[in-house]
Specification:
By secondary structure, the chain is mainly α. It contains 4 helices and 2 strands; from the N terminus they run αααββα. A two-stranded antiparallel ribbon has the order 1-2. The radius of gyration is 12 Å and the shape is globular.
Length: 80
Amino acid sequence: MPVSTVTAIPESDLPAVVSVINSCSTGINKVVESLQQKFPSVSKSQLRNKVREISDFTDNRWQVRKDILVKLGLSISPGM
């Protein structure tokens, strides 16, 4: 299978990724470190790309985009 720009995190793991992003109020490096503990087989660059793909840096923190939350059927918390 050729290497592509698609991150090696399966769709079924996205809720866990969203949870980590939402729980980390710091920079992307901390988010990536937390994700790597959950997904040790995925490279940091792939994790960083996934964070950038599904979230935006707003109000000094990474926040998962609303369309991703809706797609996953997750509630949009009032603080977002």
